[in-house]
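explain this chain.
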Amino acid sequence: MPSTTLPTPTPDELDDLIYLTRTGDLASLMSLVTQLCTTHNCPPSILLASSIDIDADGLGSQSSLLHYPAANGNLEIITHLLSLLTPSDSLGASPSATTADKSAPSLVNHRNVSGNTPLHWAAMNGHLDVVQALVKAGADPTIVNEAGRDAVVEAEMSSKDGAKECAEWMLRHCEGLEKGVGDDGIGEGASGNRKVEEETKEEGQNPESIGFDEGGRAG
């Protein structure tokens, strides 16, 4: 019976994938993904779902490949990665296709070690076009991070150019934000408590409100 276990890229392979998504080298990224899919005998959607930044000790940032271009505002890389999350028609109803179908939305909403999704990072860094692409692909703006804040609150608290526009766009176009996710018992620090956040916020205090153009990582 075919296995549904996700392949695991080697540490070096994962580092290369992260580097290319962070620096925005689309041609090299496409080539590497093709190569690794052949090596691990899996479709791109499965490779992406298994490419999470976790080190040998089970730590690391736990970010997905979507986090890095989201932080940098690289719409080209984001668009390409999102396109790879759609299982190939050639997979039919195979276990790999089923796994890919389940992996795609969870990867778009994957929370890193700080609880931030790619949408959090795009919004807090002011990248509206990336925010729009992620929401269109199924990103959930009501998800809260470990600080109890959703993507809108993080954008409102950010000092980055364009962040406030990201917050305003999500409030206008995304359902479930005005009443806040606190109603579901998930976190009282999200959109439902926005007034309190506005009164207590201090600009520039979010350690993840940075880009990755210089090749660094955030926690």
Observations:
- The chain has a mean pLDDT of 80.
